[in-house]
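Protocol step 4 of 6: structure prediction from sequence.
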Amino acid sequence: MCGLCGFLYKDPGRYGPVGHAMFDMLTPLDRRGTDSTGVALYGPPRDDSYVLRVRIEANGDTPGRVHEALAGAGAVSEESHTGGNLRARIGYAGDLGTLTDLVEEVPETEVFSIGRSMEIVKDVGDASDVEAAAPYKSFQGSHAIGHTRMATESLVDVAHSHPFWARPFADISVVHNGHITNYHKLRRRLAGKGHRFATGNDSEAIAVYIADKLEQGDSLENALRSSVNDLDGTFAYLISTPQGIGVARDRFALKPLIFAEDDEKVLIASEEIALRRVADSTDLKPRELGAGEVRWWLR
């Protein structure tokens, strides 16, 4: 089942309440699954630092130990934590995989995202539960993607919740509805190239697959088109990068995905009700993504 949504301002200089848009779109999609909910939010990029989102053990000395790990790697300019969620900004010039490992050497931690502009917030429960655990509605940004999950093939916990970060590639995330039947083959091929995975969820492999294509110099368009042939199974997914959002649907078109756009913005969701929650006009004309179709919007 699962529910997907996305929101993007087309003007590259425009930022607005994308956190609130995600909350409004995700709320009616909770009927598609409330095992977990999450968002990947993109704010103004900072070339001098990275922002990290980390799941931590809420009690004990875990926050202090994470701070020590980060401070040993670079200059920490911002840091806060709410419950089991920690956010930090660090000036860092090294490999992001190494930075991830440094943080995750602290017991009971998991790095959800690292990016110049991207922040992933997710937890078990519905959109309101996640907002209470790690507030995101007030986030001002350029674009965002979101997900409500009904677990079918992996654990019901925060680690297996969407969105997934394409570790260790900065600012690339995915949300997915479906099942990738050649996941193990795909993962082995990507692991053979040196890529590492945090979970056994098939959706994480989509993020790394697209990120790998982009690293090789492919355009987002070509990476999306290749995925329709290279990914077996039934799927609809949204991939988000610092520049925009891409979407793809498998050739059987069994998983719903619709979109609508005007001169200012793009709206994407599994169901029309989610689009209507944030549409400015009743003249909105949603269109279903076709079988095997891909689309992309860059700011």
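Step 5 (inspection) to follow. The chain has eight helices and 16 strands.
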